[in-house]
Design goal:
Length: 383
């Protein structure tokens, strides 16, 4: 396999594990900071805590940055010379793969929630004012920033930060990708004129978290998308770059992984400062691991898994009337089947829930494709 095909296969092989990682992030396990733990870490409870911090607070957080880097790389890999006509074609394609499904996945669950509330008014006699308040509070913000979290985080200046997201909260990263895609003319000219200098500026902003708090303009999207764009515009193969510097990236990644886990990712001040450095090295280490899986073990991407990733991102965390989110439903069922609250039982349910959720989403997508093939394209990123 030549370097170009290997690069493409590596990207595709990464997609499904990244989707699983995102589900792990949204598991939100009840764990505590390991550096302050007052229990034995090799006990059942301790192992559950270490695993929860590692998988939900640290390791899996390379998923969204990797996704942004891939997006920036793919946007510019066949777009070496700027043209507004080419830009229009790129945007037209992204309307189908990003904007339309983004709008649908926020509007439809919101409308279903409103209908469920109206049904409660009609059947149970609940006050209509609650529905009106819900609609007024959310209104157009369902498409942009009706949810907020991460307000306890601070930057190097000691300023409080915040994260925002649309109604389908996991799609905040897609909102930011749409924004950064719109700004690709600026990114293109900045990289062409300044090269590594602009990437260095964005890197400092990323690790210091000194950046605008405007919703949709998160530094993670701008730094990693621009980094991917830099690789593409300079015709640098990511796999070859990682292979060249693997003795630098991998050891640093492992050391920072341990340190960031001890300090619970972004949930402590020390962790917040180690975290971005781990993620940077973790993204490139992920490329190395995926490429080695292909080269050494002939593990190739599965077309069905690759094409289902957007659907998994979109549906796994969104709430539906009566059943809740697919992830929440899976967790409830597993805890019903495996009752108890020991560390071993909690750990098993924690590990298996994202995997079961992902494959349930895939089954649902397969079912939808058989019944409504054209309609399903609108909800699955035109894949």
């Amino acid at each position: 396999m030549d370097s170009v095909k290997l690069q493409s296969a590596t990207i595709d092989l990464l997609r499904f594990p990244l989707a699983i990682m995102v589900i792990f992030i949204h598991m939100n396990p009840e764990v505590c900071n390991l550096s302050d733990a007052d229990f034995c870490l090799i006990s059942g409870h301790g192992i559950y805590n270490v695993t929860g911090v590692l998988l939900s607070h640290v390791l899996t957080h390379i998923a969204v940055p990797t996704f942004y880097l891939i997006s920036g790389y793919l946007f510019f890999i066949n777009f070496q010379k700027w043209s507004w006509e080419g830009y229009k074609k790129k945007l037209s394609s992204r309307i189908k793969t990003l904007l339309v499904p983004y709008l649908l996945w926020n509007a439809i669950p919101f409308l279903l929630a409103v209908l469920a509330m109206l049904a409660a008014v009609a059947i149970k006699g609940k006050p209509i004012e609650g529905v009106e308040t819900f609609i007024v509070e959310k209104n157009w913000h369902i498409f942009y920033d009706c949810n907020e979290w991460g307000t306890t985080r601070i930057n190097w200046l000691g300023e409080n930060l915040r994260m925002t997201g649309p109604y389908d909260l996991p799609l905040w990263f897609l909102r930011d990708l749409i924004v950064v895609t719109m700004m690709t003319p600026i990114i293109y000219y900045a990289i062409k004129k300044s090269g590594l200098f602009i990437i260095s500026i964005l890197f400092v902003a990323y690790i210091s978290r000194i950046w605008t708090l405007l919703p949709g303009f998160h530094i993670t999207a701008f730094f990693y998308f621009s980094t991917g764009a830099y690789f593409a515009l300079n015709k640098i193969n990511v796999n070859q770059f990682v292979d060249k510097y693997k003795l630098l990236f991998i050891p640093i990644c492992i050391i920072l992984l341990v340190a960031t886990t001890i300090y619970d990712g972004t949930n402590t001040v020390i962790g917040q400062n180690i975290y971005p450095l781990f993620v940077c090295t973790g993204v490139f280490t992920a490329f190395f691991v995926a490429s080695r899986c292909i080269i050494k073990y002939n593990i190739m991407p599965n077309k069905m898994l690759v094409s289902s990733c957007f659907f998994i991102y979109a549906i796994h965390g969104v709430g539906f009337p009566l059943i809740g989110s697919p992830l929440g439903l899976t967790r409830r069922v597993l805890h019903y089947i495996i009752p108890g609250n020991t560390g071993i039982e909690e750990g098993f349910c924690y590990i298996i829930s994202p995997i079961v959720t992902a494959f349930l989403c895939i089954l649902l997508l397969m079912f939808a494709r058989r019944l409504f093939p054209k309609l399903t394209l609108y909800f699955s990123g035109n894949k």
